[in-house]
Design goal:
The complex is a heterodimer of chains A (120) and B (107).
Chain A lengths: L2 E5 L2 E3 L5 E8 L8 E6 L5 E7 L6 E3 L7 E6 L4 E6 L8 E9 L2 E8 L3 E5 L2
Chain B lengths: L3 E4 L2 E4 L5 E7 L7 E6 L6 E5 L3 E2 L7 E6 L2 E6 L8 E7 L6 E2 L3 E5 L1
Parallel strand pairs in B: 2-11
Antiparallel strand pairs in B: 1-3, 3-8, 4-5, 4-9, 5-6, 7-8, 9-10, 9-11
Classes of the chains: A mainly beta (120), B mainly beta (107).
Chain lengths: 120, 107
């Protein structure tokens, strides 16, 4: 089955760190750009970061630059998001999303998401 | 950053109705636009990309049009499973940005 499964979310204090993981299966992970997209409770969608197939290019939304790092391990079919210096406004469901092949900037496969709550 | 707006923010409609949602970009994005459907507690689902191309498996009652700054998503005959929130997304330049969403609910 073609799917993405996120893990690693939870409750963390402001200023803390968390590492999210996304396990891909059912497709050739190394062929695709991958992204993280988040959604604060009751709010809309916000693209966070993406990474090229070989990890050589990475892009971030300004609000997370210098705090979050996206990475991947193609041998393990996994995507990661290292989140440091977390703030209350980072509270959201974080989705792992696959970029469409040949049209990398459209997200054609999504995971179910993992909830990150930043609170003291 | 490119700002995306949507109208209306919500619409009440009946099964069988034709529903049109508008999305506007703060600057021209050619046809670099996608539409997603999201149901409560679920991940978004890609409906349309490149402004007007239907994603595989999406019913033909969904259609998209537009280019430049103004885009529309049309549901030709609303079905019970279409009650959801719809988002547009620009894919022209980083950072990718989404519209605030349009909630389609039952009249």
């Amino acid at each position: 089955e073609v799917q993405l499964v996120e893990s690693g979310g939870g409750l963390v204090q402001p200023g803390g760190s968390l590492r999210l993981s996304c396990a891909a299966s059912g497709f050739t992970f190394s062929d695709y750009w991958m992204s993280w997209v988040r959604q604060a409770p009751g709010k809309g969608l916000e693209w966070v970061a993406n990474i090229k197939q070989d990890g050589s290019q990475k892009y971030y939304v300004d609000s997370v630059k210098g705090r979050f790092t996206i990475s991947r391990d193609n041998a393990k079919n996994s995507l990661y998001l290292q989140m440091n210096s977390l703030r209350a406004e980072d509270t959201a469901v974080y989705y792992c999303a696959r970029g469409q092949q040949h049209r990398n900037w459209y997200f054609d496969l999504w995971g179910r998401g993992t909830l990150v709550t930043v609170s003291s | 950053d490119i700002q995306m707006t949507q109208s209306p923010s919500s619409v009440s409609a009946s099964v069988g109705d034709r529903v049109t949602i508008t999305c506007r970009a703060s600057q021209g994005i050619s046809s670099w636009l996608a539409w997603y459907q999201q149901k409560p507690g679920k991940a978004p689902k890609l409906l349309i990309y490149a402004a007007s191309t239907l994603q595989s498996g999406v019913p033909s009652r969904f259609s998209g049009s537009g280019s430049g700054t103004d885009f529309t998503l049309t549901i030709s005959s609303l079905q019970p499973e279409d009650f959801a929130t719809y988002y547009c997304q620009q894919a022209n330049s980083f950072p990718f940005t989404f519209g605030p969403g349009t909630k389609v609910d039952i009249k």
